[in-house]
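User: I'm new to structure prediction. If I give you an amino acid sequence, what do you actually give back? Let's try with this one:
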Amino acid sequence: MVTEITSRESERKMLADAGYGAPAIDYFLEKKYMGHIENASQVSEKIGSCGDIMKIYLKVDDNEIIEDVRYEITGCAGAISAAMAAVDLVKGQSLDHALGVNDGDVFQALENIPEKKHHCIQLAVKTMHQGIQELKSGNK
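Assistant: Good question. You get back a string of structure tokens that encode the predicted 3D arrangement of the chain. For your 140 residues, that looks like this:
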């Protein structure tokens, strides 16, 4: 137990020293929206310029309200925290609202991530928008 706490505190300090804000660190450590959704309404995948891979699972009701969102990510702390923040911004919202979420909205939710990781925010948002657009066009 002591080792786990020490490890988590060490990881938190490392991320803070690297320029991640407290919310971004929490999103990364908790990873509360990581995983997949059985019988998702839409599954889409995007590869970032850095090689990070994001797969998004969207569960949408008949009124086009996002019931649930999950990401599977092969990537860094920036990619994971950005995707988790994006989910908080769109879960329970309409597809049209989610399409209006932009990089600045996610950055604001994270408070801060290192400048060299801003492309991770773009990847999270683009993956989400791609999933929604594919769902709307019927391109599963």
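You can read the tokens as a compact description of the fold. Here is one thing that stands out. The longest strand covers residues 66-74.
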